[in-house]
Fold this sequence. Notes:
By secondary structure, the chain is α+β, with helices and mostly antiparallel strands. 22% of the residues lie in helices and 11% in strands.
Amino acid sequence: SYVIGANCIDVTDRACLDVCPVDCIYVGERKSYINANECIDCGACEPECPVDAIFVDRNARGDAEKTVFVGDSIAFFTESLPGRDAPLGDPGGAGSVGDLGVDTEFVTAYQA
Ligand code: F3S
Ligand code: F3S
């Protein structure tokens, strides 16, 4: 699957959102997150990001920081986010939930 990494933090350009055919890129507070279960690996988003934040998870091997974002992207959907009772899960489209306005604890605390 494709993953959004550190470069998106505090940028959130959103160009990726416009090209995703399955609307599986969800906007948090400081960054956006791709739902790995909903992503069909089309790759359309990757070249659209002006800060090269998007990468393929298998390319994260051996790269400690990218690996952290692979796990964090899963956590965004599977763990309860601050202020929310239940995990987001797989909503089936970012448009149905809107901007979440919240990040994982890791991203909330992230400092470059
Ligand atoms: Fe969408 Fe990018 Fe996956 S465009 S389907 S998130 S590879
Ligand atoms: Fe972030 Fe790049 Fe998309 S900055 S919101 S991954 S276009």
